[in-house]
Amino acid sequence: MNKALAALVSASLATSAAPAFAGDDARHPTIVLVHGAFVDGSGWSGVYQILRSEGYEVVVLQNPTTSLEDDAAATRRALATISGKAVLVGHSYGGVVITEAGSDPKVSALVYVAAFAPDQGESVSSIVASAPPGVPALPIVPSADGMLMLDKAKFPALFAADVAPDRARFMADSQQPWGAKALEGKISTPAWKTRPSWFLIPRDDHVIPPSGQHGMAQRAGATIREVPGSHAVYVSNPQAVAALIEEAAASASANPAQ
């Protein structure tokens, strides 16, 4: 290791105890945005910009989506950089991640956006397997190394029907492969049992049936909001998503029970 690199590493280690995000504004908790399967954190850009304009500190995760264990660990690492309270927001499979990681003492509220909210011992795989007859199977294309993608030709209409066609096509072509291990990852202790929860359900979701989302939300005792939109409602309607996050953040700040 040369001297310049050694100095850089030394300086980094010397300051590593200081949190990267303040998160201690008396008005606002820090918002942590957790993406789901087949996509990455860039889809949160609209929500991020709105929240930032309202004075929130926002952390956008880039989860590996290789396994629930890996993704929950990445979420906890992000929470470790925050000195104050946090609101965890998960889209789709990201709901599984915040359910597993959201028992962290810094988390004051959970927000599910077109998401899974499993109970103890449940996984995406077990929830999908228990879907009522007639729910179509997703056009998942597996690879030899255990990673999964959605059929690119079917992605726009299935995942992002209300997103501008060019952007929906880009989302299809820039998919982040999803690990089969993540599909099978089981929840240990569901955070929604001890944290107040909010749930945004898009009426035209073709990935997670709205009826299934309602069932999970009601089981979690979540505050439910329903809006028109596709599974990619966080991209097509960032205003509605940001509004629900702010509602959860305001409630958590007014009732700091955690």
UniProtKB/TrEMBL annotation:
The keyword Iron is assigned to this record: no
InterPro entries membership: AB_hydrolase_1, AB_hydrolase_fold, Sec-Metab_Biosynth_Hydrolase
Residues of the AB hydrolase-1 domain: 31-243
Gene3D superfamilies for this protein: alpha/beta hydrolase
Keywords: Signal
Keyword Transcription regulation: no
Signal peptide: 1-22
Superkingdom of the source species: Bacteria
PANTHER family, A to Z: AB HYDROLASE-1 DOMAIN-CONTAINING PROTEIN-RELATED, ESTERASE_LIPASE_THIOESTERASE DOMAIN-CONTAINING PROTEIN
Annotated protein name in UniProt: Pimeloyl-ACP methyl ester carboxylesterase
Species in which this protein is naturally found: Sphingomonas kyeonggiensis
Lineage of producing organism: Bacteria, Pseudomonadati, Pseudomonadota, Alphaproteobacteria, Sphingomonadales
